[in-house]
Amino acid sequence: MSVTAASGFRAHGVACGIKESGDLDLSLVATHDGAPVNATAVFTQNKMTAAPVITTSAHLVLSGGQAAAVVLNSGCANAATGSLGLADAERMTELVAAEMGCAVEEVLVCSTGLIGYRLPLDAIARGVTALVSGLNSTPAGAIAAAEAICTTDTHRKEAVVRGPGFVVGGMAKGAAMLAPNMATMLAVITTDVALDAPTLTHVLRAAVAESFNSMSSDGCTSTNDTVILLASGLAGPPTDPAAFASAVAEVCLDLATQMVGDAEGHTKVVRVTVTGAASDDDARAGARQVAESQLVKCSWYGKDPYWGRIASELGASGIVFEPERLTVRYGELIVAEGGVTAEVDPTAIAAYMDQEWIEVTAHLGIGDGRGHIITNDLTHAYIDENMGTS
Predict the structure, then answer these.
(1) Residue 140 and residue 4: Cα distance in Å, rounded?
(2) What 3 state SS string does 127-161 have?
(3) Taking the model in full, what pTM does it have?
């Protein structure tokens, strides 16, 4: 049920004509009675910021960290559209607010799709009435909402975690341009706990740091990336705040992992972990350098455990690094130790590299720092998908 699993929320998705295919392309997540609840968000760090990101950020300030609805569209990013794009994003919120009977600043907006194109507002206006009237708290409503935000995704992304006295659910989209500090992704997370906006912000930022900010498909950070957390408060304050924070983190990590697992053209999902670093920051930087290396990604596509490329990237990452201390493992199989090649059973390593999900661990032997990135391989299919806008 994802975004409708927590009490107090409804959702729906419709096809309004943004996508030429006729697929679902307009989505809404809203409170059950149209009243605002505490809300927070984390956004892209790309300075080429899309109009919906600017609008949503401004609305959260105007409302004092409250929202009654999130309207999302796929098929058009409304990015690089200037002042007209800002007016279009605001108009989307006005249309939803009028139908729901809430304040305009209580409606948040997200868009995803091609950059440089304006929204077809006439189509969106026609779709909003059906979108709002169809809101429901059933699994079907959540499914339609999750389907309507997909672009090159091959399937919707949903996650639910139930804790002691509370529920956290979420939906997301993302299949390319996935990089640390978020990228070409949208996520809406709902919960029934009662927490103020500043506390929700702290919880969400911590969760994002270890999930959406710890994945990288192709190293590209996009213009529209947004993660929104809404809290209905119907379950009251969490009896175990740490369990709630862990649940939000689990939902975020589940959604992030699904995104990398749906990365354009991928044949492998890879978790790169760096341990024994001088600091956690060093470990994260080293893992990111490896995960975003085209040479390393190509070797994964070729099912080649070529650890020399990993060592080279670690050495070039600017972190504290001593080659003679390096150990590299694929799963539990050691392919390098003390900075030199280790003997490994060729049948065992070939079988491991043939899997879709693999783990690569580089132990630096310097300190206690630890960090990871979830990524994927680089294939011909990825190039085919991204050669143009059509």
Answers:
(1) 10
(2) HHHHHHHCCECCHHHHHHHHHCCCCCCCCCEEEEE
(3) 0.82
Q: Per-residue pLDDT tens for 76-106?
A: 999 999 999 999 999 999 999 999 999 999 9
HSE, CB side, 13 Å, CA atoms: give it for residue 110: 31
CA distance 46 to 222: 6
> What CA–CA distances, in Å, run from 319 to 62, 209, 274, 366?
42, 20, 11, 11
Collapsing DSSP states into helix, strand and coil, what is residue 300?
helix
Report d(CA 255, CA 229) in Å as an integer: 14
Residue 199 catalytic?
no
Residue among 31, 55, 184, 190 flagged as catalytic: 184
Among 363, 339, 177, 225, which Cα is nearest to 287's? 363
Q: Report the alpha-carbon distance of residue 351 to residue 175 in Å, rounded.
A: 27
Separation between Cα atoms, residue 210 and residue 269, nearest integer Å: 17
Among the listed residues 318, 311, 316, the one whose alpha carbon sits nearest the alpha carbon of residue 363: 311
- Three-state secondary structure readout of 311-378: HHHHHHCCCCCCHHHCEEEECCEEEEECCEECCCCHHHHHHHHCCCEEEEEEECCCCCEEEEEEEECC
Query: Residue 250: which of 144, 163, 141, 369 has the closest Cα?
Result: 163
Please name the helix (run of DSSP H) or strand (run of DSSP E) that holds residue 14, with its range, or none: strand 9-14
Which ranges of the chain would DSSP assign to H, the alpha helix?
A: 51-62, 82-100, 121-133, 139-147, 197-209, 241-261, 280-291, 294-301, 307-316, 346-353, 380-385
pLDDT in tens, 166-219: 999 999 998 654 444 544 689 999 999 999 999 999 999 999 988 888 776 555
Residue with tokens 């868009």: 111
Full set of structural domains in the chain with CATH: 2-261 (3.60.70.12), 269-385 (3.10.20.340)
